[in-house]
Every structure is written in C-alpha cells, then in structure tokens.
Amino acid sequence: MKMYRILLVFLSITLVYSVAEALLDGKTQQSVNVICKKTIDTKFCNEVFANNLTTSSPSKKDLLNVTVTEAERISANTYFFISTLLRDAGDERSGLQKCAEAYEIVNTAFTEGVSFFNQGLYGEILKLTGNVSNGVGICKTDFNVPGYHINPMMEKNRETEVLVAMEKIIGHMVSS
Ligand SMILES: *[C@@H]1O[C@H](CO)[C@@H](O)[C@H](O)[C@H]1NC(C)=O
Ligand SMILES: *[C@@H]1O[C@H](CO)[C@@H](O)[C@H](O)[C@H]1NC(C)=O
Ligand SMILES: *[C@@H]1O[C@H](CO)[C@@H](O)[C@H](O)[C@H]1NC(C)=O
C-alpha cells in the first residue's frame, strides 16, 4: 500500500512536468541551440523556451512570441524587485535608483516590443533592441546591496542582455 502511494506520487509529478514542458522536436531543439549559443547565458536562454513553448514544433514566430512575452514579464518583475530593494536601501540608494531608471527604459522598450509583435511589425522590434542595451548600460553594478554578497543586479542585467539578444536573433530570422 505504501509502495503504491509512492509510485502514484512519482507518476503524478512526472505527469505534471511533462505537461508543463513541451519536449521539443529535434529540428526545433537544434534551432534553439543555435540561437542560445549566440547569447551570453545558454542555460537561461534554453530555460525560457523550455518553460514557455507549448508545442513541440513551434514556428519561428512562436519562438519570437515567447521571447517578447517573457522579456516584458521578466523586466517588469525586475523593476518591481528593484523597488523592493530600494525600500531597505541605506547609503547605496543612488546606485539602485539608477537601476530603477534603467529598467524603466528597458520596460518601455520591451512593452513596445510586444505591441509590435502583435501588429506583425517584426522589423520594428529590432529597432528597440538599442533602447534596451542603452538602458541596461545605465544600471551599473559597482555598489553593495544590503543582504547580498553579490549585487543581484548583475544577474538581472545578464538576463536582460540574453533576452534582448534573443529578440535580435529571432527578429532577424522572422523579418528577413
Ligand atoms: C514562462 O515560464 C515561467 C517559468 O515556468 C513562468 O513563470 C511564466 O509564467 C511563463 N510565462 C507565461 C507567459 O506563461
Ligand atoms: C502569442 O502567445 C500567446 C500566449 O502566450 C497567444 O495567446 C498569442 O495568440 C500568440 N500570438 C501569436 C501571434 O502567435
Ligand atoms: C527608443 O529610443 C529613442 C531614442 O532615445 C526614443 O526616442 C524612443 O522613444 C525610444 N522608444 C521606446 C519604445 O522606448
């Protein structure tokens, strides 16, 4: 009886995972690998696709859809994260405030990216990537954040750079 329960729990967990993550077909996995190898964090790039693609053989447009949607969602989360850090920030407010400014620019551009995608204006998405890169450049990470050994904005900036690289690479594929 006990064994049976353990098996049942194991099976349910397996089922939940297989529903949540669409296993990509060989050709798609190959394109994903090519795209992600051109970014500075292959693992993060792969996770974005693995967690959000809902079919095993997505089109290039589906890949772009996931990318613009996640870019907007993650950068909005980052902006919220900075605002929570600012609440507890002491002497180092100015560094975080710069990052808040930076992520306002990043968010605006990524939000516009979703809007362009929905209008089928894929080429326009490429023009926004410069805004994102400029924005990230404003968020320096040479300050301490209370409670963190490593400035957490280093990881956030890296994720943003991966997302903007993904938009650039897939945006080119879709619009050419
Ligand atoms: C993409 O995947 C992440 C991680 O599983 C999840 O939190 C997020 O809600 C997904 N995005 C969408 C738009 O469903
Ligand atoms: C983009 O993805 C969303 C789900 O995340 C879906 O509702 C929408 O129809 C997709 N848009 C296109 C143009 O494929
Ligand atoms: C992108 O940057 C340009 C030049 O700074 C600015 O005029 C434009 O409003 C920005 N667009 C978005 C969507 O942030």
UniProtKB/TrEMBL annotation:
One family name in Pfam for this protein: PMEI
**Keyword Cytoplasm appears in the UniProt entry:** no
Signal peptide segment: 1-22
* Species this protein is from: Brassica oleracea var. oleracea
Protein known as: Pectinesterase inhibitor domain-containing protein
Give the family, as the similarity comment puts it: Belongs to the PMEI family.
Q: Does the keyword rRNA-binding apply?
A: no
InterPro entries, A to Z: Invertase/methylesterase_inhib, PCW_Enzyme_Inhibitor, Pectinesterase_inhib_dom, PMEI_plant
Top-rank taxon of the source lineage equals Eukaryota
Instruction: Tell me which NCBIfam families the record gives.
Output: PME_inhib (TIGR01614)
Pectinesterase inhibitor domain segment(s): 27-170
* CDD domains hit by this protein: PMEI (cd15797)
Q: Which GO terms describe its molecular function?
A: pectinesterase inhibitor activity
Alphabetically sorted, this entry's keywords are: Disulfide bond, Signal
| Gene3D superfamilies for this protein | Invertase/pectin methylesterase inhibitor family protein
